[in-house]
Structures are given as C-alpha cells and as structure tokens.
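Example for tutorial group B:
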C-alpha cells in the first residue's frame, strides 16, 4: 500500500509573478472598459488588489535575494536602487 505524502499543502501556491502580472493586466483592462456591473467591478478590483500585493511581495523577495547574493562578495556595499533612475548604456567599442 502506498503511503500518502506528509507535506500536503494547506492552500494552493500563489501564481508565479509573471502569471499574476498578466492576470492583473487583464483585470485592469476589464475595469477600464467600464462595462462591468458595480458588484462585479468591486470583486474584480478586490482581486486586483490581492494580485498587486502578491506581485509586490514577489518583487520584495527578489530584491532581498539579490541583496543577499551581493553581500556574499568580499566587502560589497549594497546601494539602494532608485526605481526612477534610467539605465545608461555605453556604446560598444
């Protein structure tokens, strides 16, 4: 007789960041159309808020992991990333 796995998840895992972001974009499109009844628009908005929080959490976790990886180097100084900064590129020689 096969035994059951001891690690049964209590709740489904949250969607991957990319899937959550795509779903959020879809919800925004539906809300912006203005065709939803009020109750459905409110439910859609609530779902969007949940997805936004999940995405923010995933981004925060990724940022923390990057900082931890950078701290493993010898004498690496971690600088805060300015979200409004633009990337500067240099022409290749």
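The residue assignment follows.
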């Amino acid at each position: 007789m096969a035994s059951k796995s001891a690690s049964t998840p209590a709740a489904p895992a949250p969607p991957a960041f990319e899937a959550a972001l795509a779903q959020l974009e879809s919800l925004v499109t539906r809300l912006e159309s203005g065709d939803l009844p009020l109750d459905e628009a409110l439910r859609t908005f609530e779902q969007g808020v949940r997805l936004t929080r999940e995405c923010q959490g995933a981004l925060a976790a990724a940022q923390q992991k990057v900082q931890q990886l950078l701290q493993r180097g010898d004498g690496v100084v971690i600088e805060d990333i300015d979200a409004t900064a633009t990337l500067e590129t240099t022409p290749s020689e």
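The longest helix spans residues 38-71. Compare this with the pattern of hydrophobic and polar residues in the output above.
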